[in-house]
Amino acid sequence: MIENDAFKLLLINLFHLNPNDITNILCTTFNKMMVLIVTLTDKHQACPYCGFTAPKIKEYVTKEITHSALTTQKCIIKYRARRYKCPCCGKTYYEFNPFVFKSQKISILTVHNILKDLKDFNETFTSVARRYHVSPTSVSTIFDNHVDIGRNPLPEIINFDEVYAFKSEKSKYVCVLLDFKKQIPVDVLPNRKKEYLLNYFQKIPLEERKKVKYACSDIYEVYRDVVHKMFPSCCMILDYFHLSQDFHRKMNEVRIKVMKGYKDNKASDEYYLLKKFNWLLFKNPEDEDKYGRLFDVERERKYNSHFKSYMNYYDLRKKLLEINNDLTICYSLKLELVDFYSKST
């Protein structure tokens, strides 16, 4: 471990400090990592609570700060931070830390370099994280905390969707507004609650909102209410993917209810079909695999040990739909839904 004036000068320049701001700086290496041990000059900072100007030093607390100004080698600053105690009011507080933003562990210079590199659209959170010896999550957090991207103009066709907000404190989901034609984001909102969405769209001029002719979303009721109130010239469209997904969920509930009627006779044809080949109910007539159309009546038949005969998917589906009338009605409605959307696009 050595005391090094060169590193002292480097810190002074990087963090815009005065030469008298640093009492001493020691440099060492540990596991191929550069470690700078820094102590700042005691400036007897006034108590932020009562303003008393002669505090006592209670203790020194070592704070580890990631400082990757040198991308060729990981570097940390071990900053010996003074913790004061005010004799007047009894409160404790730390001296001013010039190396990091409040409550952060990555140096201001490193944050600046990360944000500068992220301006290059070829960079990713992972590539920048590797360069500055931090985690991709840290880079993502820095980006979220310092970058505020303005929204794009409202399009003629807007799509409402949501993604799981793994870091958001406001909601489990964030709302994504998408330009349907251009397939680019319009904006990403921190939650999808009705009150927030109404407040957000109310701030957009009415003339711009009138330009939206169609809004597409899943069956989340809040989206429909917001569209009806905020977009006077807009027609609401239910997204086929989400509508189909919800319909399949309901149809599966019917299948399970029917199958439970045969739970005392699990060797029956009905239970066997509903248990093993229920997936056929959720396939469309035109679906294919590597052998051709699934429900082609001429498709090669293979031996089925349960029925002790040669059968294909067309035969199995036919038997499935003969089990229960409710299941047959569900399947017919599914086909009508598929046909409606295929002819409407």
Shape: elongated
Question: How many strand units?
Answer: 15
Q: What is the average of the pLDDT values?
A: 88
Structurally, how many domains make up the residues? 3
The percent range for strand residues is 15-25%
Query: How many DSSP H or I helices?
Result: 11
**SS-based structural class?**
alpha+beta
Low-confidence stretches: none
Topology as H/E string? EHEEEEEHHHEEEHHEHEHHEEEEHH
Main β sheet profile = 6 strands, mixed
Could you estimate the helical fraction of the residues in percent? 25-40%
* N- and C-termini, Cα separation: 72 Å
Describe it.
- The structure is a single chain.
- With 345 residues, this protein is α+β, with helices and mostly antiparallel strands.
- It has 3 domains: 2-99, no CATH class; 157-238, Nucleotidyltransferase, domain 5, CATH 3.30.420.10; 242-343, no CATH class.
- Helix content is 34%, strand content 24%.
- The N and C termini lie far apart (72 Å).
